[in-house]
Design goal:
Shape: globular
Strand content: 5-15%
Number of strands: 13
Number of helices: 15
Bound molecules: beta-D-fucopyranose
Radius of gyration: 21 Å
Strand order of the largest sheet: 1-2-3-4-5-7-10-11
């Protein structure tokens, strides 16, 4: 068990940082020879994103990255999780490398290191090159090798400087939003496609880990979102419904990586759409990884519902105040998820790669903005995290989502998760009170969590 001193002090070397992703903050998606990605196409299709928002400008980080790194330094961040846009590095997704794209991420990594901030890149945060989508995208079995080749190009260039790599961000959201429900790019709504996309995402992850091992000496892992499921009652039907959702959201991705098979509930959920996969695929998917990234936002309370397609389960909204995305703040769920990982999956080293909340913020006044709800969310989740570490969960770091208010996918700019406010008219950055709190927490390695 980690040895910790004063109340809320975190283990020595605990990595404190913040997270973003390429399409959500960079802007200039086609600059300097980059190819279009599926989010560029999706956002430019009327009706797909709230208010017709796009990532054309976003936070203009592609041009303001130096100032953003300075800001991270001022806030005292020790780590920064960002994603690499595949489309900048390989405009057609495979083949020709675009030097300007690689240069951009190299400069960013060097600048972070100069400022004493550890870079934590994710290779895929939802922005598949459109040219690959034209060939079937995540439905085409070849995508695993396209992704591994891309991973090799990036890892080779940044080898030695980057010590912690993530392959995919939240494959569940990619398959569910992109291929089952159609709310995210590429916008398909197809029960037959979703399990295929999920499987090739996992194969791509495995192939990238394998490619990295051929040349990289450091750590590589996978980022999943975990949403622990609690039955709405103790009826057998609700218990089974919660297990189905747990299998679909959480275990669909962890079981193949750690146990070499899919959870049996998936067959029942997908019925005739559930494919049989060769053993060789599971050998690829099950490559040993060095850590697991966990994105945690909320829990699910689930009841059986015959009419709910395709899981026969419905989420029951709790009678408590929720965030602007309608998510309940439930810090205990983070501790429960970590305890479950410890007990069911061999307690892998974990980074919390995302955790945060969107609230309606008051206007900036006198150079700051008071966001007590976000500060409270942060404080309560970090206390729960501290408790989980005290219970033996092997957590190495925490990245708040997000550094900046940004393009929140189909919500556009209407949901603000940043600890730094962005005025989308002037692009000015203003740290919110939650950022100041987070700075104090980092400076004392957690001790400020003892304050009210
Ligand atoms: C996660 C995504 C991240 C952001 C947060 C709010 O699912 O990984 O990009 O949208 O949700």
């Amino acid at each position: 068990m980690a040895r910790m001193g004063a109340a809320f002090e975190f283990p020595p070397g605990f990595l404190w940082g913040s997270a973003t992703s390429a399409y959500q903050i960079e802007g200039s998606p086609l600059a300097d020879g980059a190819g279009a990605g599926i989010w560029h196409r999706f956002a430019h299709t009327p009706g797909m994103v709230a208010d017709g928002d796009t990532g054309d400008v976003a936070c203009d980080h592609y041009r303001r990255w130096r100032d953003d790194v300075k800001l991270m330094r001022e806030l005292g961040l020790r780590a920064y999780r960002f994603s690499v846009a595949w489309t900048r590095v390989l405009p057609e997704g495979r083949g020709r490398v675009n030097a300007a794209g690689l240069d951009f991420y190299e400069r960013l990594v060097d600048c972070l290191l100069e400022h004493g901030i550890e870079p934590l890149p994710t290779l895929y945060h939802w922005d598949l090159p459109a040219a690959l989508d034209d060939r079937g995208g995540w439905l085409n079995p070849d995508v695993a090798h396209w992704f591994a080749d891309y991973a090799s190009v990036v890892c080779r260039r940044l080898a030695g400087r980057v010590k912690t790599w993530a392959t995919l961000n939240e494959p569940w959201v990619v398959a569910d939003g992109g291929y089952l429900r159609g709310t995210l790019a590429p916008g398909h709504r197809n029960r037959f496609e979703a399990p295929i996309a999920a499987h090739h995402l996992l194969r791509a992850h495995g192939a990238a880990v394998q490619a990295y091992r051929a040349e990289g000496r450091h750590a590589i892992g996978l980022v999943v979102n975990l949403e622990p499921q609690y039955p709405a009652s103790d009826s057998d039907a609700d218990l089974a419904a919660a297990r189905r959702v747990d299998a679909y959201v959480n275990r669909q991705y962890l079981d193949p990586v750690f146990h070499g098979h899919y959870p049996p509930e998936l067959h029942a959920i997908f019925g005739d759409a559930w494919p049989a996969w060769p053993q060789a695929d599971f050998d690829l998917i099950g490559q040993p990884i060095d850590f697991l990234g966990i994105n945690y936002y909320t829990r699910g309370v689930t009841r059986h519902d015959d009419g709910a397609w395709p899981l026969q389960a419905t989420a029951v909204r709790q009678p408590v105040p929720c965030s602007e995305t309608g998510w309940e703040a439930y810090p205990r769920g983070l501790a429960d998820a970590l305890a479950w990982l410890r007990d069911e999956y061999g307690n892998p080293p974990v980074y919390i790669t995302e955790n945060g909340s969107a609230f309606h913020d008051p206007p900036v006044r006198d150079g700051t903005l008071d966001d007590p709800l976000r500060a409270d969310y942060l404080r309560r989740h970090l206390r729960a995290l501290h408790g989980a570490i005290a219970q033996g969960c092997d957590v190495r770091g925490y990245m708040v989502w997000s550094l900046l208010d940004n393009f929140e996918w189909s919500f556009g700019f209407s949901r603000r998760f940043g600890i730094v406010h962005v005025d989308f008219a002037t692009l000015q950055r203003t740290p919110k009170a939650s950022a100041r709190l987070y700075s104090r927490i980092i400076a004392g390695n957690g001790r400020a969590l003892a304050e009210d």
